[in-house]
Amino acid sequence: MGFVKVVKNKAYFKRYQVKLKRRREGKTDYYARKRLTVQDKNKYNTPKYRLIVRFTNRDVIAQVSQATLLQIAYSRIEGDVVVCAAYSHELPRYGIKVGLTNYASAYATGLLLARRHLLNIGLAETYKGLEEANGDDYNVEKEGERAPFRAVLDVGLARTVTGAKVFAVMKGVADGGIDVPHSETRFFGYNSETKYNAEAHRDRILGKHVADYMTLLKEQDEEAYKRHFSRFIAANISADDIMDMYKKAHEAIRKNPAREIKEPKEITKKRWTAKKASLAVRKNRVKNKKAYLKMLKAQQEAQ
């Protein structure tokens, strides 16, 4: 077969259709989004809830959405509806003051989202989840009349390698009592030969890897330790405190997962434009100008 010349003429460009904006920007995987948002036709207007996990440089965002960071959401034509959200910058309330984007904090954020959402929909007492983070694979089962709340994981553009932090969030949500379809093969501690090691995953959830690295670095290079863990040192957190810190945080989250409502601040708006002069001010200005001109005229006549 011979080579075919590629002709990009006027007819080609007249018919060219550009990709969707968020695809062009590299923000949305529409192949995945379609499958995450399309609901079965026989379920009519029932929302298909998604567990949305996003990581920034300083935060973990989890949301429950009807189809949109940690969020639970669902989709509508006019856009995604976020039902519940939790952020890792809320964790200092529960005693986790540093390391807000690591694996252990990702798990804690997922747990916070699950407990908060179940509290909002009145299922917190029915579905308590796995009350101790022991690393065991846990799936929520139906209890009583109401079925467990179900949401499917939406990882966005994150790479879904075994042991990734997005699965730490998912594990936290599942342990919190929300039904998230998953397999243990993606959790930290799994490999094809030895299968799933729950103990290794438990250590990861409680931040043992951070504590081990703190101990190692302190022994090898004191200056590097002070640089790398400066915020831990400032918060007076040592390697021995890490695991207890996360255990206490999990208990505190279960005790009070509700969102903290801040009182609105009274804001005094700054005015950057000149105020419109009133009639009295304008009349007074005219009067002053006339008096000034009269004075100048009198001075000229005097000379």
From TrEMBL:
Its protein name is Large ribosomal subunit protein uL18
Q: Please provide, alphabetically and separated by semicolons, the GO molecular function terms listed in this UniProt record.
A: 5S rRNA binding; structural constituent of ribosome
Superkingdom to which the source organism belongs: Eukaryota
Has the keyword RNA-binding been applied to this entry?
yes
PANTHER family, alphabetically? LARGE RIBOSOMAL SUBUNIT PROTEIN UL18, RIBOSOMAL PROTEIN L5-RELATED
Record's keyword terms, sorted: Cytoplasm, Ribonucleoprotein, Ribosomal protein, RNA-binding, rRNA-binding
* Matching InterPro entries: Rbsml_uL18_euk_arch, Ribosomal_L18, Ribosomal_uL18_C_euk
Tell me which species this is from: Acanthocheilonema viteae
Q: Name one GO biological process term.
A: ribosomal large subunit assembly
